[in-house]
Amino acid sequence: MRRSIIAAILMATTPLTLAPPAHAIFGVGDIVIDPTNLAQNILTAARSLEQINNQIQQLRNEAAMLQNQAEDLLSLDINISVELGRIMDEITQLTEDANAISYRVEETERVFQTHYPEEYEDWSSTEMAEAAVWQWETSRAAYQDTLVMQSRIVQAVKVDTDILDDLVDASQSATGNLAVQQAGNQLAALGIKQDMQLQQLMATQYRAEALERARRLQIEQESKTRQSRFMSGASTAYTRR
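RE: above sequence
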């Protein structure tokens, strides 16, 4: 449109540039018009107007760019870190409060050496009986801990499902790259938390199975010791006879 207006102005002023030299109109002493100068002034004004329009458009583009940047930096309106931390704290606390052998390395080694000996030669029958009861109670407690951990993680899965729905909805309505990135980070954190839950569950499950296996091995060892003692006693009695 601007080009069409400028072309029309130039066409309108072209005859004026071919007119005779400037002269007065309305008689002597009246206003003097120079056609060439008039055309030049009109052309200069048109160019100035186009320059101003270009500057206005540039400012509009810069404003739009700033607006896009502001939207791009909008934060995601959801934060799951508190809920994830709370659930993991509860699971960790369940591990710390385990009824069976503690999960601390030093405590585990001490208890195992005390209650699961390699030999029972120096143990009395009463001591072996007491050890057998303790081993059974510990094995039972370990399986109880496993069941409790399973129940807690099942409850956590329900919470995770609700969190996942919220994150998906938030990511779909995200307006900027920052919000999208935050949604992705929180989804990754949710996956890591579920992996940690699985590790906790596997630890308790394997602990229960290991203790039960150890208890059975000790029963076998105790049986061998009792049988050896019985055979030794029977042999002595037979010799005396």
